[in-house]
Every structure is written in C-alpha cells, then in structure tokens.
Specification:
By secondary structure, the chain is an alpha/beta fold. Helices cover about 40% and strands about 10% of the residues. Strands 1, 2, 3, 4, 5 and 6 form a six-stranded parallel beta sheet that branches. Helix 1 crosses helix 5.
Length: about 240
Amino acid sequence: MSEPSDFPAAVMPHIRLPDLNALQPSFSTHRPRILILYGSLRDVSFSRLLAREAGRLLELFGAEVRIFDPSGLSLPDDAPVSHPKVQELRALSEWSEGQVWVSPERHGTITGIMKAQIDWIPLSLGAVRPTQGKTLAVMQVSGGSQSFNAVNTLRLLGRWMRMITIPNQSSVAKAFQEFGPDGRMKPSAYYDRVVDVCEELIKFTLLTRGCSAYLTDRYSERKEAAEKLEQRTSLSAI
C-alpha cells in the first residue's frame, strides 16, 4: 500500500480519500429544478419547440422547469451585468440543479445566441459557482441531415463550465419535418431519443444533486484556498 512519503509533490493534509458516506447522502425530496436554454429567435424556432417538448417531458418525470427566453439579451460585454435579462439568466442558472441546452446547428456549430447565453453565466460569482456540479443534457436541431457538431460543442462548453454532462444526447435532423402545425413533435426515433435524454437527465440529477459539493471538491482548490488563507493571516500579523 502506498505511503505518504511516496508522494513528495503532494501536500498531504489536502489529500482526501474517497468517502462512501459522502456519496450516499439522504435523497432530497423536492422536485428537480431544471433550466432550459435554446438558441434561436426565429418566429418558427425548432430549437424553441424542442425545448418546450423537453420541458413537458421533464415535468412528466417530476421536474420543476423554467425556460429562459433569450430575446432582449445583449451580447456579452455589450451591457452591464445589471441588465435585467442578464440578472434573470444568472438567477435561473443559480436556481437550477440541472440544465438542458438546445441549439440549432448554424455554420457547423452552435448559434451566437446560444453561446451568448452561456458566456453571460460566469464560472464564479463571489463564492458561488453558478454551474459547477449541475447536470447538463445537450440537444440540437438541424435543417439538413443528422449532424453532431452542435452537441459536441455544447459538451465542450459544459465541461468548461464544470457541469456533469450526461452520456445521452439528441440530434434532430430535418427538424422542419419533425414538428406538426401545433408545434408538437411527431412520433419518431428522434422523439424516442428526446424521451431517453430527459429521463436520463432526471436520474442523474436525482443521483448527484445531494453530493454535488463533494463531487466537485478538488485537491488543487483546497490547496489554493489554504495558501490564500495563510497569506492573509501572515499579512494581518505584520
């Protein structure tokens, strides 16, 4: 068995061995709080329709759902953070325990509207990390054949935002054929996958929300916090 002396580069007081009890907290009984973001402002927006379809399914599975309307949200850095739409988005992100990001594929990637929403959510707000440890499901709609460019980009962003991105995802090809005049999604293999994604998101949210703080407790951050505290203590003693 390894001994502390085997790790000369590590600061051992900040090493934490896995704690099975911390991974098995009492399950929260309130409804999972899910925020949905979509990436189009068109009058007929298939990403909005897919977001609403996902919202209905998530409510069926027991979630409390909020869908953010990006209309009126300024480009990042083109308005102060006090802007009402920015404050609304950040408050919803902090409120949520899981999120769904739905983007059209445009020019082979996500839309600027989708990216702007994510860019307005910072990695940290004081001591609060608005996205860290929250679950995430990613979906995309395409005007042509099936592609995974947008969901792959969303996965990259989710990882950057320190979110728990679930394994499943949805990519709806030729989205204009998949929704009826009433805005509802037609029965299809694409619809079945959307159901799969929503079901999986709820499961992962229920499984991880009670221990998300433990799951995202990191050696490097504990070490850095201790060093900053030591510096402040040393300065105050001068």
